[in-house]
Amino acid sequence: KQAEKAVHQKKEQSKTKCRKARRRHINLVAEFNHRQRKNIWLETHIWHAKRFHMVKKWGYCLGNSPTEKSYRACYRAMTKQCLLQDLSYYCCLELKGKENELLKQLDRICSIDTGLTFQEASCLSGRFEGSLNLYRADRYPEDMLGPVTFIWRPRDGSENRQLWIWVHPALKQDILKELKAIFQCSEPEEICISEPVTASFQEEKQVEVVTSLGNKRKKEDKEGEKAVPVKKIIGDGTRDPFQSYSWISRTTGIAISDRSMEILRYRLIGPLSHSILTETLKAASVQTV
């Protein structure tokens, strides 16, 4: 009777764990994956979230304005040192195919009257990045789509080339639709269906395990406590994870791929930008087989 009485009088366990348990890496990653299913986080989200007012735009969670007075510090960095900006929310559209076929169709959505085109010699070699305004096919000067930046991959000796076009997320769907129309890319080449489903299912299980009641947190994985959830980006803020992200044309042989959130983009402003890049990055050694 005394034992039964002690069991009934036992204090019910708290539903919320202590801060040390909540801040464990395995718990944080599962929580972060769960929280960015609707609005994708950039790689620098944690840094910005501690210092900026965050807003949800174009399917991303972006820093809008700083929480403290930092305008003078930013201006000082731009004029004397270096200021880094995260532009990874810009969408990257990749085009692959024969150079002549690419230039032939791309000329339909731009005009030499507005400035540079995709055929500019300095940009075509891959040494410099170009910028221009895109229009609907054969509709210049009407039906403007918006400004974009582009860069060609340097030639490797073959007639096939690779082109990256960077567009704002608000313009991505219209420009992607126009590119698929002029290149006749209607057949999906790669479909990303199975991975996001399993990823979201595993994340939901992890969140349930983290929030469940019990003496000690236990995972159902075979690895036990050593299993750590991996950070996964399911699609991006402008793409449905259950739709295809690569299309190919059987007639022209051109392939269009959506590389958003796969290629990160940063902007460095200031007189020390080049020296910082030189000290930070090292050229990889090319190994020939």
UniProtKB/TrEMBL annotation:
Signal peptide interval: none
Gene name per UniProt: Pop1
Organism the protein comes from: Quiscalus mexicanus
Domain Pop1 N-terminal residues, every copy: 4-97
One of the GO BP terms on file: tRNA 5'-leader removal
Protein name: POP1 protein
GO cellular component, one term: nucleolar ribonuclease P complex
